[in-house]
Write a structure and sequence with these properties.
Three copies of one chain form a homotrimer. Chain A has 339 residues and is mostly beta strands. Helices cover 11% and strands 29% of the residues of chain A.
Chain lengths: 339, 339, 339
């Protein structure tokens, strides 16, 4: 998991010793080893720091390349010998402290002329920047693309050709392909919702990932696509998302997926190509949905669904079972009033 | 269905022959006949091109004035003799190709001074345009109306007297009456959600209609009212819509309708005067709801409801039946555990 | 209930006689008594005008300090002797007429330089105001706080230190503490959804309260927190609210409450410290939820819940009962098809 330095400015590598001092953690390992990046424990490469929460009964998947991890007293035993560890009371919180010392999010800053476009932004001569738009340092806007009035394009954002960014929409920490459409007020690349325990109570977990919108993706008005925690949130080619949808961090939607209004897809969900989600469908985190699945309007899905299936209801089940339940209940309640 | 040229610039009439060439369709009819407008098949007037999808079992309502229509091999048989037809594999997609050759959406462009108000916009001396607002060509803003900070008013939009447009709200392709209130971030007149099949996969169907907000309408913060496909989305006098609602293309709401937060009304739904929709009510497309209907919070309605009724549940049913089911299920599951 | 004059400019006290003339109401009481403020009937202090709607069967709680109230013919009998009253057909509507004569919401107006920051705004030298931001008269922005691009800060708004206001977000009639985060497009302090009867039909009830966001509060992208009617909407320290949530007027959330995406909390609800609301949870108005309560995703809650409980379903019930119902229905509909 390589943090994209277009969105997060590297502040230089840390040693394990420095990380231990920053977090008050106990160090087991080589004090002078460098920490160069951030990752989740299942994806870490050498030098990338990860964390493990929970208790000793957890069965985390660990990357074979994991070299340093923040644990608590309980999860320390889950780490193979030879992996350096920092032992802390709140591993995720300690990890965020190290993260903030390694990378700093790039905010908009100077370099603006009267048009509110940063001097270092690369705007194709065939692009249109409408009044009130703000474009950050190092952003790139391709030929034929229109940045709508009062839209905000964050530092480092890359947008391809013939895309349209709607009025007052905002894009941060994201790469957009060609023919991408964002309707008015869409919010791409905000930090995801992750509440972690810290010494003073609930805190927001920082996010270092990105959003990728592939070619011909359309995002509805006031819809939100959060960026990944360490990796990316990915919306596949020709996928169409309606107004007021919420797509959480690290979600991966395939190609030509359709998500109707108020669709809510929780963290790390995967949805296969060509699946259709009716209005107000919700999917719980980490659920895997196959290709060409249909979910009926207002379904609340808490389990994986295989390819080609149609489910409905809350909690969602195969549509025939759901319809049978609806019909059966209707009949019983109508005829057995004196039960 | 006359396309409003304040929002869509006419590019000149086409002949059937040209339309056939643009779309690769087979032409049956008079090659030199002009196409002057766009419509749905049930509303078309002479010279307005429509389309028919599906198969031969469809029973479309056809306007008696229909003169030219795009069909596929199957639906060709549904069209009366004497109506010209273009036979294409993807009729709706071909229709959108013709539409784009007939009309071009007006985008914001030049004519802006330092205030980001187009020179051709007509702003009443008694209106207030707050900092950061952007107002497009040919827009008109009436006496006593306030355009909020960083709001966006698209080309041709007409707003009456004593209306208030909230901070960062946006309005396109719309006519607003007097005493209309949009709270912050409301999105009026974005393109509706219509995914059509095309030769390369899913594509967005273009929208050529408008939004009409009658006098004393209020639209909540971050709520969305999509414009019609060919006709209009209409919100009747004194209708009040809460935050984060979604009103789809071609919906018609009557007078004094109340829609609480997260209300979701799908395409072409009609709701009668004085109806009350509780929080998180959803209505499936083309459903017709009578006057003074009450829908309980979180109802999911898939069927027409007559005037004066109260329904609840998902799928929604008369409220007494729903409450009976809820009570019966509660009792059964409590007492018959060993069934 | 003291109206905060940073947000509402006082227009001077009225006498009862003037109020009666403005509203066409019948006056019973001392004509020359002054009306100096606004309140609900249960909170009014001397000189603050309140109202009572409904019929004689209502059992309103009345403040012992209530000195003047607008009633209808039916509710007049509920008011103790010695309290002045105005008798009107639409008490809430008449109250709003008096309110508008007492206080005028402060809108953005003059005093702007090229940066769209009002001359009277107090911006700490260590704060960052990004391009396109608009800041109103009398607003105050603390050290280390960042006002995002195209964000809007209304007149009189107070924001503490090290807070971050996201792109295109808006804040009105609100006090924000330190380390408060608003993601892009969040809408703080809009008028709540209150539809009142008036002589011409449905009208919006005006709101004169505020929003208080305590230290370390985070509000998600495009989420909405409405201001109170007369009192305040309060979000407690370290409470975290996800994208696209709706928090209505006069809600009080405790400390470290977590509200996942699409949470909808109706007017005057109270939620205790440390409670967790899953995605798409809805709570009906005036419901009281204890401390450390868990509500499962998509729960629709219509009743009070005591501390430490876990509820789910719609209408929500204790989670074991809900799961038992789900399992029982599944079993019955599977095995008794011929019932």
């Amino acid at each position: 998991m390589t943090v994209d330095t277009r969105f997060y400015a590297p502040l230089g590598a840390l040693t394990l010793e420095t990380a231990a001092a920053l977090t008050g953690a106990q160090l087991i390992g080589e004090a002078s080893s460098p920490i160069t990046g951030l990752a989740s424990a299942d994806q870490a490469k050498a030098g990338e720091i990860a964390f493990l929460e929970g208790d000793a009964s957890a069965k985390p998947t660990l990357s074979p390349h994991l070299s340093v991890v923040i644990v608590n007293e309980a999860t320390s035993s889950l780490v193979p010998d030879g992996v350096s560890r920092l032992i802390a009371r709140f591993p995720r919180h300690a990890h965020s402290t190290v993260a903030k010392a390694l990378f700093q999010p790039r905010h908009l800053s100077g370099g603006f002329g009267t048009q509110a476009v940063a001097a270092s932004a690369q705007i194709h001569a065939g692009a249109s920047i409408l009044p009130g738009a703000v474009i950050g340092e190092g952003a790139a806007i391709g030929e034929g693309t229109v940045i709508g009035p009062n839209a905000v394009i964050g530092p480092g954002v890359q947008i391809g050709r013939n895309s349209v960014i709607g009025a007052a929409a905002s894009v941060h920490c994201a790469l957009l392909g060609d023919h991408v459409t964002l309707l008015a007020g869409a919010r791409i690349g905000e930090t995801g919702f992750g509440v972690m325990a810290g010494p003073s109570g609930a805190e927001d977990a920082p996010h270092y990932g990105r959003v990728i919108l592939q070619d011909h993706v359309t995002i509805g008005a006031n819809a939100c696509i959060d960026r990944g925690v360490f990796g990316d949130t990915i919306i596949g080619e020709r996928t169409k998302i309606d107004n007021l949808c919420q797509i959480a961090h690290n979600v991966v939607l395939g190609r030509s997926v359709v998500v109707a209004a108020f669709g809510g897809i929780s963290g790390s969900v995967r949805v296969g190509d060509g699946s259709m989600l009716g209005g107000r469908v919700g999917i719980a985190d980490h659920v895997v949905v196959g290709e060409k699945v249909s979910l009926a309007a207002s379904a609340g899905l808490f389990r994986d669904v295989g390819p080609g299936e149609t489910w409905g209801g809350t909690p969602a089940k195969p549509i025939r079972q759901w319809m049978r339940e609806v019909a059966w209940l209707n009949k019983q309640a109508s005829t057995r009033k004196r039960d």
